[in-house]
Amino acid sequence: MERIYLDHAATSPIHPEVLKSMQPYFETFFGNPSSIHHYGRESRRGLDEAREFIARAINASFDEIIFTSGGTEADNLAIIGYSKANQHKGKHLITTKVEHHGVLHAFEYLEKQGFTVSYLDVNDKGEVAVNDLLATLREETILVSVMFGNNEVGTIQPVAKIGQALKNHQAVFHSDAVQAVGMEDIDVKSQGIDLMAASSHKLNGPNGMGFLYARQGMTLSPLLYGGEQERKRRAGTENVPAIAGMRKALEITINERDQRKEQYRHYKQIILSVFNEEKIDYHVNGADENGLSHILNVSFPGINIESILMNLDLEGIAVSSGSACTAGSIDPSHVLTAMFDDVNRSHSAVRFSFGYGNDDEQVKKAATTTAKVIRRLARL
């Protein structure tokens, strides 16, 4: 049986060129980058080259990139690290109801530490209104966190407008850009982003690797204590092979970005055309135009999501009910619950997400199989 993977927003297969770029740092340049001898210097060179490339890719400076173990650590370092280090300026924080759990749970922790958090509503496309943000701002607000692109429905938030709105306020702007880095044009300077999280495994890089962009002058309380790596902001010997792999993955993704976006939009059209031809009852969740090209979230009214996922897996189709961090949970999606009053919309939602290795034939087969499964479950 052919298996078709359409869950790239959860994690993506490592690109062969990425694997190749990592190999020398396992075999030849294996030194600790903090060591001053030849082996350490060669490892440090790879580390510095990766940091420089990643910084240029988002219009940041070399020393504004902090390597982390992934997007969750980057988000936590930004949110908890900044809030704790700057609580003397105020203890009010703002985020949205549709953030990734790596963000929401960080804010829940801070609430237990005495901070006050305001959670912004979204419309039925998953978009935050800048006016709502402005109305929620207080003099003592120190941090605003709004994701770049949503991991469940793909909606892109008005990041540049938010950055502009906060320009004359003390609050810094953090954005979880895990799904957007490489896929969208990101310029942290022009978009007014002060803190931004990214993850390697969403763009065909290795698992367990990410970075935090922290604008120069940001004071962060570290989450880890040990050595003086990453300018004392993130202790622990840097994972140079994975960092080199993330750098290569980002390079490939950026070079192929326009082609990939067009391709993924085409995949969406294929799936929806098949559903229309098969006369399947469905609703698309998220912004039609202003959305990440690789994510398509669809609800099938009256059909239980667990039955859909189980039957599709038996047919060899790998998709998701939303965030990978809630896979297996029977709770409704917090993203779709925030977008719609109808909880049933969430209980029947499937996320298709595209990436490296997919082609038209695979996507059409997945859509046809999904239609067959939905019809069968509807009869039951």
From TrEMBL:
This is cysteine desulfurase. It is an enzyme of class 2 (transferase). It comes from Salipaludibacillus keqinensis. Belongs to the class-V pyridoxal-phosphate-dependent aminotransferase family. NifS/IscS subfamily. PANTHER family: CYSTEINE DESULFURASE, CYSTEINE DESULFURYLASE FAMILY MEMBER. Its cofactor is pyridoxal 5'-phosphate. InterPro entries: Aminotrans_V_dom, Aminotrans_V_PyrdxlP_BS, Cysteine_dSase, PyrdxlP-dep_Trfase, PyrdxlP-dep_Trfase_major, PyrdxlP-dep_Trfase_small. Signal peptide: none annotated. Its EC number is 2.8.1.7. One of its GO terms (molecular function) is iron-sulfur cluster binding. Residues 4-365 form the Aminotransferase class V domain.
